[in-house]
Write a structure and sequence with these properties.
Blueprint lengths: L18 E6 L5 E6 L3 H26 L5 H8 L4 H8 L3 H7 L2 H4 L4 H11 L3 H5 L7
Helix pairs in contact: 1-2, 3-4
């Protein structure tokens, strides 16, 4: 893409910030160009965020019925999936999957719960009781 063709659509998902993109200048050399967003990218991002918000609502309902642990709600609310949560927490993916079940989650050690608290920047009370979270 040429530097004069870099989108400048003032994307609301950028929240007034700009993104560095690489484009070619008149001589064909790559150069960094600031972009205020692209309408198509903004739409795709908005749709993905809506999907994650829906997953968080569904997880919250499943937590209330005892089908899932509070970890499932926090995972979706903070825009994680199992591989990402595994990577940042240091737990294996199979462990994170097990922690999503109430029976296993309720038996986690204080140290393991603290790891999740750190990941989500939550207090222990907020992690365990999803009703204590301000939404």
């Amino acid at each position: 893409m040429r530097e004069d063709k870099v989108p400048q659509d003032n994307s609301p998902t950028y929240d007034g910030h700009k993104k560095l993109m690489y484009a070619t200048d008149k001589e064909g050399h790559y150069t960094g160009v600031q972009s205020s967003g692209w309408e198509v990218e903004s739409f795709a991002t908005s749709m993905a965020v809506e999907d994650l918000q829906q997953l968080a609502l569904e997880a919250k309902a499943a937590v209330k019925t005892g089908e899932l642990s509070p970890l499932a709600y926090h995972m979706h609310k903070h825009r994680f999936d199992i591989p990402n949560l595994s990577q940042v927490s240091g737990f294996f993916q199979w462990q994170v999957k097990r922690h999503l079940t109430p029976k296993v989650f309720n038996r986690l050690s204080q140290r393991k719960l603290e790891i999740y608290c750190d990941v989500f920047a939550l207090s222990m009370r907020q992690l365990i009781n999803i009703e204590d979270n301000n939404e």
